[in-house]
Amino acid sequence: MFAQDFHEGDTIYLPEVNLFGRERSFGDADAQKRYLLLKSRVKRVYPYAKMAADRLYTMERTMDTMQNKQQRKVYVKRTQRYIEDHFTDELKKLSRSQGRILIKLIHRQTGRTAYDLVKELRNGWNAYWYNKTAWLYDLSLKKGYDPMNIEEDYWIEEIILRAISNGELEDQTPALQYNFSELTEHRRKRLAN
């Protein structure tokens, strides 16, 4: 999103800047505890979602240069094996809540749900079974990221933007971008009703 400024008849596009005050605080101790727990979980899994988006971008660029479907299939399998070898142990240590947030952040960063990515890169059968396995842990790979309508996603967006502005997380332009001022205004109106 860019704001516009006019200078001598020319349009200058300026990047959106989010200004955050001091650390978020709640009047209710339970709400404060839930927020801090969510913040900890988001900071833990955001780097994985960022890495997934980076890998996906690299994979798509590489696959675009390949001549046939067989080459792409072999490349995807090789990449999957690499990811499994290097990250399975770390990802197994995530809690269900962290896994749920990671699924949402993958959607935020890539613009596609985890289910759609598996279906696209592997096949529908694998996507179906991976989703069924996730379901055993009360998760869904089809779950999307929607800070406009889902309260938890709104807080996740705020936590990410705050952490990036404070230098606590590395910035990456997400595939799904939201104007945080509009999100906040929409949330205020929704809570007022």
On the 0 to 100 scale, the average pLDDT is 90
Instruction: Give unreliable regions as ranges.
Output: none
Radius of gyration (Å): 19 Å
Number of strands: 2
- In spatial order, strands of the major sheet run 1-2
Helix content: 55-70%
**Oligomeric description of these chains:** single chain
What distance separates the N and C termini?
28 Å
Based on helices, strands and strand pairing, what is the structural class? mainly alpha
Beta-strand content estimate = 5-15%
The SSE string, one letter per element, is: EEHHHHHHH
Q: Which overall shape is indicated by the principal axes computed on the Cα atoms?
A: globular
In short:
By secondary structure, the protein is mostly helical.
Q: How would you describe this protein?
A:
This protein has helices at residues 29-64, 69-92, 96-110, 114-121, 124-136, 151-165, 180-192, and strands at residues 2-7, 10-15. β1 and β2 (10-15) form a beta hairpin. It has a two-stranded antiparallel sheet with strand order 1-2. The protein is globular, with a radius of gyration of 19 Å. The longest helix is centred in the first third of the chain and has 36 residues, at 29-64. It is mainly α and 193 residues long. The protein contains seven helices and two strands. It has one domain (2-13, 32-192).
Keywords, separated by commas or semicolons:
about 190 residues; mainly alpha; two-stranded antiparallel sheet; about 65% helix
